[in-house]
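Notebook p. 47: complex prediction with manganese (II) ion.
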Amino acid sequence: MRILVSNDDGIYSPGLAALARAASRFGDVRIVAPDVEQSSAGHAITHSKPLWYRRVRTIKDFEAYRVNGTPADCVALGAFQWGKVDLVLSGINLGPNLGNGIWHSGTLAAAKQALLLGIPGIALSTPVVSDEPDFAALEPHVAEVLRLLFSEHRLPLVNVNLPPTPRGMRWTRQAVERYDGKVVPGEDPMGRKHFWFTVEPLEENAEDTDLWAMENDFISITPLRLDLTDHRELERLRTSNPFVAADVANGTPPKKAARG
Ligand code: MN
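Predicted complex, structure tokens below:
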């Protein structure tokens, strides 16, 4: 099995090497990661400048490359260069990727990019409590999670978050409760105004969510999909306005104004 390992923290992150070590129990590992940190880059891709990669020899025992691009670029380029890739692992991110944080996450984007190419993707993250996470202690848990996910053959996209000392695992859903995206103004040493975007949850987390699991020291495993369509709303709209689609197909404008 060919396993491509990437991340959004950059090629020199200790979490990347830890994930490569855990993955090497299961197949051939190659690392392709951004040359600088790309946290919160989301699913950006580079379209206005050329991409390149360079061999990195500092990650012991692994063939590794750094790329002057985003996490999604790394997966696209890595899969292209290696040929048939069976699985993409992204992480282990220094910091959790839970709830609405998923929207901004470069770690998740690498796994999503894999799925866009038809390759299963798994994103893994862990909080930074004080110093660096204890990756040696986490490694058996990571291996256990991977073993479990490999036994579930059809999971195309998975988000895994590991607490520092896990007491079990939970299948979870993404928490989509609102957050307080407050912008906090400040001032730099030259007296110029600057701003920080902050993210504070506003609501309690329901017990089946990724946020709840992590707050309670469980490994959170969320199966995800790329389809953002609200299928229930789509069905309702097709029932309440069935003529819209027919009119558009006939080249005539819809007779009834869209609602909302
Ligand atoms: Mn990151």
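Notes: The CA atoms of residues 35 and 223 lie 29 Å apart. The chain is about 30% helix and 25% strand.
Next step: compare against the earlier run before touching the bench.
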